[in-house]
Amino acid sequence: MASSATIQLDAELTIAQVEVWLKRLLTETPADNEMMIDASDLVRVDAAGLQLLLAFKKSCAAKNVAVALFNVPKNIQELIRVSGLTQELG
How is residue 44 annotated by DSSP? Predict the structure, then answer.
């Protein structure tokens, strides 16, 4: 049976938080087949934050773990779109 875990992002995901979030994401990766990332509190993200999310998603895919980013605020959706990462992070 499918099972998932949810991670709640903070208000910022920038280069200043990447090291902490990398450690957290690596320790919270489930052995199950799905990881949900709730971005509802996310206010600010930079290129390093987007790269972290992309790398995490690719790492999980290699382990057959699907990652879904949800509750993404409109301004962050627009940043993802103009960064050309809609398909990868959408």
Answer: E
Q: In the Cβ-directed half-sphere of 41, how many Cα atoms lie within 13 Å?
A: 9
Cα separations in angstroms, 87 against 17, 23, 61, 68, 75: 24, 25, 14, 12, 17
Taking only the tens of pLDDT, the chain with its 90 residues reads 345 688 999 999 999 999 999 898 888 766 568 889 999 999 999 999 999 999 999 988 888 888 999 999 999 999 999 999 999 987
Q: 32 near 4, Cβ under 8 Å?
A: yes
DSSP element (H, E) containing 37 = strand 34-38
